[in-house]
Amino acid sequence: MTSFDLMESLRRELTDITRAYWLEHxxxxxxxxxxxxxxxxPWLVFVRFVDRARLTEVLLYALVVGLVSSVLxxxxxxxxxxxxxxxxxxxxxxxxxxxxxxxxxxxxxxxxQVCSRWWTFAPVAFAFSIxxxxxxxxxxxxxIYVSYRWNLLYSIPIYLALASAAKFMLGALTASExxxxxxxxxxxxx
Length: 190
Prior knowledge:
Blueprint: H1 3-26, H2 30-49, H3 55-78, E1 82-84, H4 97-114, H5 118-141, E2 145-147, H6 152-185
Helix pairs in contact: 2-4, 3-4, 3-6, 4-5, 5-6
């Protein structure tokens, strides 16, 4: 048996164990129902409060934040910095999908929408970064999240950098788009 075959065999075994664990210990628990709610409610709030005139821009911001948040969660989980006892779906990775793809991107997107200036965005994003780090300890208390080699204080600058980098990127993209539209709308000097 090659090393790859051994890894695939172990991966199949882990998949079977994960499915059995999810069915026995996750599905239908109050933590699982909390995840179901957290996966749906933030997007309902987003639909209710998003500025329809800026929908594409704000949604793109949310998707960038959600994608990067998910990748960082996968990296942290794979490096055994933290883990999750509860999954929304046994086959979905990252396991904390309800925060990576809903709570974090939706709230940061609404902050991005409301706080267009950096001097208002930065302190609000910082406050929510602290709130998200505290949410990690609440999830620990709810027996959902396990920290192996991670201090929640490490999360604060990461959340802030994530929100700020996405704002910077979207700001640069929209400014470039505006300049391009302006050039195209001006008559040719010839």
